[in-house]
Design brief:
about 270 residues; 8-stranded mixed sheet; about 45% helix; Rossmann fold; alpha/beta
C-alpha cells in the first residue's frame, strides 16, 4: 500500500503547487478543497503528472465537516502525512467580520480550529502508521490572542484575526509535539514565504514579496525530510515563533479555549 498524504487547501496557491510534487515523490495525494470541480481538477493534475490522487470535498469552516473528513480519511488506513495548509487570509481592506457555521470568528475557525479538529480525528491513524508527520502551514505574522474576546466582538481587524490564528497554530504545534513525543509522529510548523502571489494575498491588497515556487520548495522539503519535531521554520531556516507561542500560561489558556470550542462543535 502506498503511503498517503492529506493536503488541505490543495486546489489553489501553495496547495496546488505541492499536490503534483507530492505525487511525484511516490505518495498518494488526498486532495482537499471546498469546490467539487476544483478538487476534481487538482486530482487530475496529480494523475496527469504520473501520481496517485483521490479527492475530498469539505468546508473546514464547519467542525462537523472537519470530523466527517477525518473519518473518511481515517477509514482508508494509509495516511502517513498530514499537511494542514488550508486557510483564510486577511480579507479585503476594511472587510467586516465573518463567523463560521459554528459561530466562531472565521479565521480562528479555519486557520486554527480546523487543523486541530482534523488532526485529533486522524491521530489514531498517524500513530498506527508511524513514523508519520504533521506539517502546519503557518505565518511569520503572529499576534497575541485575547482569550476574553475570541469572536472579536469588541473590534475587528482582518489582519489581526489572521495573525492571532497563526500564533495559536504555532503554539498548538509545540503542544502537540510534546503530547506525541516518543510515538513516532513529527510535528512542525512552517512559514513558507512572505506574501506569495496567492488569492488570499491578492484579496488583501498587499504587494507580493516572494513566489509560490519559493514557498512551495521550502514546504515540500519540510514535508519530505526529517527535520526533527516541535520546530518552527521560516522557509528552510529553523527559527523562533512569537514568544507567546512558548508561554505556558498562553498555551494553557489556548488548550482550554480549544477544548471548549471542539466540545461545543461535537454537540452542536
Amino acid at each position: 500500500m502506498t503511503d498517503a498524504v492529506l493536503l488541505t487547501g490543495a486546489t489553489s496557491g501553495l496547495g496546488a503547487w505541492l499536490a503534483p510534487r507530492l505525487g511525484a515523490a511516490g505518495l498518494t495525494v488526498l486532495v482537499h478543497g471546498r469546490d467539487p470541480e476544483r478538487v476534481a481538477a487538482a486530482v487530475a493534475a496529480v494523475r496527469d503528472s504520473g501520481g496517485r490522487a483521490d479527492g475530498y470535498v469539505a468546508d473546514l469552516a464547519s467542525l462537523a465537516e472537519c470530523a466527517r473528513l477525518a473519518a473518511a480519511v481515517a477509514e482508508r488506513g494509509d495516511l502517513r502525512i498530514l499537511v494542514n495548509n488550508a486557510g483564510v487570509g486577511f480579507g479585503a481592506p476594511g472587510a467586516a467580520r465573518e463567523l463560521s457555521r459554528d459561530g466562531h470568528e472565521l479565521r480562528w475557525a479555519v486557520d486554527y480550529l480546523a487543523p486541530v479538529a482534523l488532526t485529533r480525528g486522524l491521530l489514531k491513524t498517524l500513530r498506527a502508521n508511524a513514523p508519520s508527520h504533521i506539517v502546519n502551514v503557518g505565518s511569520v505574522g503572529q499576534h497575541p490572542v485575547d482569550f476574553t474576546d475570541l469572536r472579536m466582538d469588541r473590534g475587528y481587524d482582518g489582519t489581526v484575526a489572521y495573525r492571532r490564528a497563526k500564533l495559536a497554530l504555532a503554539a498548538w504545534t509545540f503542544d502537540l509535539a510534546d503530547e506525541v513525543a516518543g510515538e513516532g509522529i513529527r510535528v512542525d510548523c512552517v512559514h513558507p514565504a512572505s506574501l506569495m502571489p496567492t488569492a488570499m494575498v491578492r484579496e488583501s491588497g498587499y504587494g507580493t514579496l516572494s513566489t509560490v515556487e519559493e514557498g512551495g520548495a521550502a514546504t515540500l522539503r519540510l514535508i519530505l525530510d526529517d527535520a526533527g519535531t516541535g520546530r518552527y521554520f521560516e522557509g528552510t531556516r529553523p527559527t523562533r515563533a512569537h514568544p507567546d507561542a512558548y508561554d505556558p500560561a498562553v498555551r494553557a489558556a489556548l488548550r482550554a479555549a480549544t477544548d471548549e470550542a471542539l466540545r461545543q462543535g461535537a454537540t452542536g
